[in-house]
Amino acid sequence: MMASQFSSLFLEIGKTNPWLTGVFFLNLCLFTLFAYRVHLHPLSHVPGPLVAKCSSLWLHYHAYVGDECTRIRRLHEKYGPVVRVAPNEVDIADGDAIAHIYSAKTDLVKSSHYTKFAVDTHTTVFSTLETTDRSARLKAVMPLFSASGVRESKPVIEDCVAEFVMRLKTEAESGRVVDVLNLTEAFACDVTTACLFGESYGALKETVAPFSVAGYFDSFLSPGRFFYMPTATWAVLEWLAAALFSNKQIGPSISSVNSYVDRLLKSSKTKSSSFQGRLLSQGVPPLETAAECKDSIFAGGYFIGVVVAHILWFLVRNPDKYAALRRELLDSRTSSESLPYLQSVVKEGLRLSMPSPARLPRIVSKDRLIVQNYRLPPGTNVGLGALQLHLNPDVFPEPEKFLPERWEHPTAEMRRDWVPFGMGVRSCIGRVLSNVVILEVIKAVVESDLLAGVRAVQEKIEVKEWTISQLKEKEILLAWG
């Protein structure tokens, strides 16, 4: 009887006020959807805040404003190592899960989120979801990134390092406050291009700051704000963001990089053993080869540049660590690979700088995944992030302090959870090259004693915690004199 009366009342309201009927139906649909996600969804047993279980808007918002990792870290402190951060997204802060998620044996593929990092509409070794094309391209270029390939590039690296030290010395003698991030990004761009393409971009030779690659790097970072959004929605929001918050440096910077890459592909070096030549000889079309080149310029230039600038800042902020490193260098004339404290300084710098701090999502395949006794069904986006692992106090005591000494006797958990180059089969292909370059440039700067008596302008370096982080101030300032 009550149902009949309710139906009659609802029909009467619908005749007199159709808008109220529409609102009622909308609210009923939302209530049903939210009730399903909270109580009946296959992930309903995974702990997390109610707002994240109901909607992805919580994750989208924090990804956009750039505090995603810090917010999720707080959730882990409250709920434990496995947290539901969106209706179909799970974040994990347990290093034991690395092997289960990123191993080739588990066959978990990258989520579709990564396609937002396509270059000129072409997916690259980093952004592609397909393993077949990626494997063929990797096979072609891996000799350049292998230990032997990097050894062959040592003279080129040393030349670029020497040029950087001279430029840093010139800037220091000017009496101005120096943005070392601008310098290290220019250096990293030059050493990456010289080693891979056989022709340096020449950023350090530019006389006007910021260098011409700066805007190009910024253009690569912006998709991280919309990383978890559906691609169609992201395309609209990205267009709006570009229209409303345009950066005048980006257009000319992209044009400069495009001209450089176009010149590479037209030159005789394309027939050599260079990065671009290897791809072209493998049958990769020129436009896709160009996209791979541009992706490598960003990956090497930005990653190395950010890490080196952070390490210089850490050494200035910790004069006792700088003195210890300088003593080691003065007492030994061996290669950088044989200097344990230098190795520790770089490891600690990589742990704290984290150019890629956020979760690296993978899709659970047809077989369910069990982590910490939680059963994650097929289709779930799941992953770990460097920030959760690198700042875990159970693994790294006093995690936010720069303590190179912690690497004198690293635990198995420290080695497992140190993931600055990513995790598993899709980890960074340039990790060997990057590590050698960072070691060589830090060694050269400290040997020259250019950081003696230097003052760090910023008390703290803050970043936007996107998939690839961006410094909020976009600069790291050091003052000489």
Automatic annotation (TrEMBL):
Membrane-spanning segments: 297-316
Secreted listed as a keyword: no
Cofactors, names only: heme
Key words of the record: Heme, Iron, Membrane, Metal-binding, Monooxygenase, Oxidoreductase, Transmembrane, Transmembrane helix
Keyword hit for GTP-binding: no
Pfam families referenced in this protein's UniProt entry, alphabetically: p450
Protein name: Cytochrome P450 4A10
PROSITE patterns found in the cross-reference section: CYTOCHROME_P450 (PS00086)
One Gene Ontology molecular-function label: heme binding
Species of the source: Podospora fimiseda
